[in-house]
Write a structure and sequence with these properties.
Helix content is 32%, strand content 28%. With 257 residues, the protein is of the alpha/beta class. Strands 6-7-8-3-9-10 form a six-stranded mixed sheet, sandwiched between helices. It has a four-stranded antiparallel sheet with strand order 2-1-4-5, covered by helices on one side. It starts with a strand and ends with a strand. The longest helix is centred in the middle third of the chain and has 15 residues. It contains nine helices and twelve strands. Helix 3 packs parallel to helix 5. The chain has a domain of 179 residues: Rossmann fold (3-Layer(aba) Sandwich), CATH 3.40.50. Bound molecules: adenosine-5'-triphosphate. Adenosine-5'-triphosphate binds next to strand 2 and helix 1. Keywords: ATP-binding, Nucleotide-binding, Translocase, Transport. GO terms for molecular function: ATP binding. Part of the ABC transporter complex HmuTUV involved in hemin import. Responsible for energy coupling to the transport system.
Length: 257
């Protein structure tokens, strides 16, 4: 479980997050939505321990993350940031292997190689393993980074949770891979003690795949819950200044503008 209590983050005089409270369970897909500049990336970075809150606490289980050392943090949580560009020549498998560095003492061992291979299989990268990363398309690069961060937290930790933070993971992916990734995340969540939080802009993706939707606006958590609770006409109007038509049919729930 991940618990956020009274989280506030300020940059100079600007409050980017204002007293956010959350309790996120493992085994569920939590998707953060909200307009540009709402504070979604800032929230993810704070939950991933990449930035230190101005006030408030973030706990992994019963541990305050400020008490978790950098190396230990890197073994239990992985983050996909919005900008992933690498500007030096590496083969695809070498980029994926970077995910294993927090676990490696001197040189990667058989276990690290196996986890990287399995992570690459998961994202259908086997045939690209020896390609120069810089020669890949945007979508291919994105899949390499998914494999890298999955390799980082590949191994379940007995009795403890692993945390995966994905900031706009659907950027660069065509609609086929977008759906494939979301389905894959749902499958991964069947593993014990895995917690995934992602940021998406597509409200219909959130409606279709999220178990829990977090709506941020001006650094505040405006609504949280399932799609019927969060993706209401009123919330969308207030936050995006758009008037949606909400369709509900069988198990489908979607918004048209
Ligand atoms: N270091 C900083 N100093 C001042 N303002 C900042 C700083 N970092 C972020 N901001 C501002 O804080 C706000 C929230 O940024 P954040 O990146 O969290 O938004 P977001 O919801 O992820 O937006 P987007 O959907 O555009 O990616 C933005 O207005 C951004 O310009």
């Amino acid at each position: 479980m991940l618990t956020v209590s009274h989280l506030t983050y300020a940059a100079g005089n600007t409050l980017l997050l204002q007293s956010v409270d959350l309790r996120l369970d493992a085994g569920k897909l939590h998707l953060v939505i909200g307009p540009n500049g709402a504070g979604k990336s800032t929230l993810l970075k704070a939950m991933g321990g990449q930035i230190r809150p101005s006030s408030g606490t973030i706990r992994y289980g019963d541990k305050n993350i400020s008490a978790i050392g950098y190396k230990e943090l890197a073994r239990i949580r992985a983050s996909l940031s919005q900008q992933q560009e690498l500007s030096f020549p590496l083969k695809v498998w070498e980029v994926v292997m970077m995910g294993r560095y927090p676990h490696v003492r001197e040189n990667p061992g058989h276990k690290d190689t196996r986890y990287c291979r399995e992570a690459m299989q998961l994202f259908h990268l086997e045939t690209l393993a020896d390609r120069d990363y810089m020669s890949l398309s945007g979508g291919e690069k994105q899949r390499v980074h998914f494999a890298r961060i999955m390799a980082q937290i590949w191994e379940p930790i007995p009795g403890a949770c692993r945390y995966l933070f994905l900031d706009e993971p659907l950027t660069f992916l065509d609609v086929h891979y977008q759906f494939q990734l979301m389905e894959l995340l749902k499958t991964l969540l069947q593993q014990p003690n895995l917690l995934i939080v992602g940021v998406v802009h597509d409200l219909n993706i959130a409606a279709r795949f999220a178990d829990n939707i977090l709506l941020l606006h001006h650094g505040k958590l405006i609504a949280q819950g399932n799609r019927e609770q969060v993706l209401t006409s009123e919330n969308i109007r207030n936050v995006y200044q758009l008037e949606p038509v909400v369709y509900e049919k069988d198990d489908r729930y979607f918004l048209a503008f």
